[in-house]
Amino acid sequence: AIGSADTVICATGFVPGINIFKMGEQAHAVDNVGTVNLVDAAKQAGVSKFVLVSSILTNGRGWGQADSAGFKITNAFGGVLDEKLVAEKHLKASGLDYTIVRPGGLKNEQSGKLAFSGELEFYQKKL
Question: Residues in domain NAD(P)-binding (predicted)?
């Protein structure tokens, strides 16, 4: 229950089980339907801010990265990136004030600096 919260932070994600043939159902249920339902519940409850922790390459197809190894490997887990993208689009269309974070691997030492900006999508490409 959201109760009287003014902000929702959604950092859910399905965990692949032993049965690899059910990964698609699990990704759909958690990363798509579950997140969409939470967005709708937040809107109904009058939440003022929704933060969605998604995944790097969620919009990989839109960036022309559908054939990249990173996209293929990650999306092989039940089409999870495609399911997350549906939820992201639903959040964007919801009318809620939102932030979508698409974390990737952290490779460098902590710098102590944090930067904020408007909508920014980028990817690394070998030239």
Answer: 1-117
What does the alpha-carbon distance between residue 63 and residue 95 come to, in Å, rounded to a whole number? 25
Please give the helix or strand (H or E) that residue 101 lies within, else none: strand 97-101
d(CA 123, CA 29): 28
Instruction: Report the residue count for the chain.
Output: 127
Does the residue 83 lie in any domain?
yes
Does residue 27 lie in a domain region? yes
Highest mean pLDDT among 5-19, 38-52, 110-124: 38-52
**CB atoms near residue 60 (< 10 Å):** 22
- Whole-model pTM: value is 0.82
